[in-house]
Amino acid sequence: MTKERIINTKFWDDPYITDLDPTEKLIYIYLLTNPLSNIAGIYELLIKRIASDTGIDKEMILKIFERFERDNKIYYKNNFVFVRNFIKHQRISNPKIKRGIENVFNALPLEIRDFCHSKWAIYGYPMDSLRIGNVYPIHSISQVKRREVKVREEKRREVKVKEPEIEPLPFTFLNFSSFTLPDLQKAITEAVEYYCNINLTASELTRLINIVTKTKQVKKETAWNYVVTELQNFSQYPEDKKNMKYLCAKIEGKINDQLTKLREIKTKKEKQERITENSEIAEKIDFSEIVKSLSV
User: Which of 169, 176, 244, 285 has the greatest number of CB atoms lying within 10 Å of its CB?
Assistant: First the structure.
């Protein structure tokens, strides 16, 4: 929707305007009349839009904003333009205009509202007649916000909620240095019942004990971690797989994968050692003597 913006002819006689160079004058009048401007003179506008509409490069636009801000005329904060004296030239006595300004102000982010208010308050701008949301005068919005924050902080200090302590999952860590076979039998039985809600048969218990204690080249603690991890995953198994036979097969598969990796590492290490050993032997051989012996 198009808007009409009336500029008083005295604009060009204003001492501040006459002191601006042509580029600054263009930006100033653009900020008053561009399509995104509103009745409150506070609106969101990207620098690239200004550059596109005016043909002025971005760096120059930012420098001009710096001057306008030093002179307390126009501010640019978080992509919002704030023309400080814009409302001064509106007919606030007109209820529709007054309501329109209030609606614009209510829609602004709180940070921008507080910023505008602070500038109005510093320069004694008469804003008492405007109300925010028809509840608070515009000059008191910052004080109200500060009081609300203070009340929340006081309540937060009064009610100190103790953070719950995160305990490790049961049976995750076992000390096998002092573990006996009955201890392991009890731990496996209780862990299976806890995670899977299953009563183990004697053969299933034996199989799990063998996985933990009789797997060569794998520490008992490592094997036990594989067991507990699969017990924790048991609830996610497909219904037809929720049994100890499948669980044990999964654990044994992971252990076998680990053993394969260990064998590969050992093979590579041995190969590297042989290469190093052969290199050292080759360095010790006196090939000059061999050549002499062949030439005789």
Answer: 244
Structure tokens at 283: 């360095």
DSSP state of 135: T
Element (H, E) at 162: none
Residue keyed to tokens 């004697």: 202
- 111-152 per-position pLDDT tens digit: 888 887 777 654 444 444 454 443 334 444 445 455 655 666
Place of tokens 């529709």: 96
Kindly write down the DSSP assignment for every residue of 193-233, as one continuous string.
HHHH--PPPHHHHHHHHHHHHS-TTS-HHHHHHHHHHHHHH
- Smallest Cα–Cα separation from 235: which of 207, 205, 195? 195
CA atoms lying within 13 Å on the CB side of residue 274: 6
Its pTM stands at 0.43
Q: Tell me the two tokens of residue 255.
A: 């252990």
- Closest C-alpha among 78, 75, 74 to residue 111: 78
- Write phi, then psi, for 34 (nearest 5 degrees): -65, 160
> Coil, strand, or helix at residue 286?
coil
Are 39 and 97 within 8 A, CB to CB?
yes
Amino acid at 274: R
Distance CA 65, CA 73 (A): 9
> Rounded to whole angstroms, how far apart are CA atoms 5 and 231?
73
In whole angstroms, give the CA distance from residue 19 to residue 30: 17
pLDDT tens for each residue of 201-211: 888 888 887 87
In eight-state DSSP terms, residue 13 is G
Residue 40: HSE in the Cβ half-sphere, 13 Å Cα cutoff:
25
Place of tokens 């490069």: 57
Domains of the chain: 9-154 (1.10.10.10), 176-289 (no CATH)
In what helix (H) or strand (E) does residue 186 lie, and over which residues does it extend?
A: helix 181-196
